[in-house]
Amino acid sequence: MKTRWIEFLIVSSIYLFLLITIAHDIDSGKQAVGQLHLFTVYTTVSFYVLYIYPNLFLKQKMYTWSILIVITFLLEAFCHFALQNWSPLPPHQIIPPFALSGMVTLALLVYTAVKTTIKALKTVSNRHSIQAKVGKELLISLVIGIAILIPISLVNTSIAALTGFTIPFCYTLFAVHYHFLLPYLDQNKTPKTIHIILSILLNLICIALFSSLMEITLRLLHSFNKFISFNGFNILFCFLLGTILTPVIYIFYYRSRKQQTQIVGLKKELGKTSADLKLLQSQINPHFLFNAMNTLYGIALQENAERTSSGIQKLSDMMRFMLHENQQDRILLVREIAYLKEYIELQKLRIANLPSIQITVDLPEDEYLGDQRIAPMLLIPFIENAFKHGISLNKPSWIRIQLHKEEDTLKLNVYNSIHAHTESDPERNKSGIGLENVEHRLTLLYKDLYQLHIETTNTEYFVFLTLKLTDIDPEV
Q1: What is the pLDDT of residue 140?
Q2: Which of 36, 270, 337, 429 has the lowest CB atom count within 10 Å?
């Protein structure tokens, strides 16, 4: 159901409520006229909610909207004026026609401002801003509170003032606890005693604020009669409400947090499995190739083809690495870098000693790596990408690879030229593992412990990766 029809139903409900109320407040001989005045207001508001606002309150139709607002005001005032001349109501039972029409028009303008603000906050909240989300929902709770306050105030002003601010009070208490206080305290691992103290202080602030609003509203409804007061009942009401609501908020928050942790864990496991599956599917299963490669290696040695035998040897070692160590969650950093070296040496065999191709490699020595560990096959996709897109046998090409370790931080810089694949290139339509999959694995395995920055131009490609090494999964 569209929002305007929901609003129309709310307006109709208020109209029926006021219709019954007015039937008791107006003399029996004048009830029909009073009901016609009320029906005029109801018709004006309904027409605005259903047609004028949704169809004309647009940037390109703002002039038409302004004219219709003025026409609506004048027509409503004329109807009230005609009814008053036909069958006058006593001054204490009816507001003057132009004043009544003006109040209705002002209420419609306030409605327009509130709707516009809610839409603006909704647009901002779609950008994942907690502040905007809370602001929008608080505004909605205030509108609901006012919608409750107005009709009830015609029956009992004290109950109206209390119930009108109950929903905004409850939401404010919930929002500041759930979205701000509890996440902040948990993130900083604050002791439970501090939790309780800050929660009590926050409750007292909300109680003071909303009990004051209740008192002001009650006096406003009685034209600031100094003898009208809650005499502290509003404070007691807010205190009891806060005392009941606060434990409920704590229970809801920690249950939600537990569920979110479980969901994140499941997503992580699923994503990790998916990423590893893609990784394995992108490689050739080496089992059935080992015997054939050993045969080719022996033939190459017999024919004195040193480069061929060396390439087969390196490829065999790389496949053993993928078969065995690639299945582990963490491997020694020295083994990961050894795999990088073998891959780079294998690629160098392909390009021989062409002077148009410059490859610079700066990798740390084994003795500086220690026993630190890393997720397997995490660095190689960046190197593969450089050789895949950065090498051309016909054009000047370059690849510069730098890898440094500073304490527990690993820094990888890859800088290469870019060449478009030719139509005959067998790699032209193959995407390999893909950097998207690598970023996904980094997010799953290292979360906030890495920084990846990629820049590209028409002729150059840059990768800068900073990774904080850890032996355990940060999500655990």
Answers
A1: 86
A2: 429
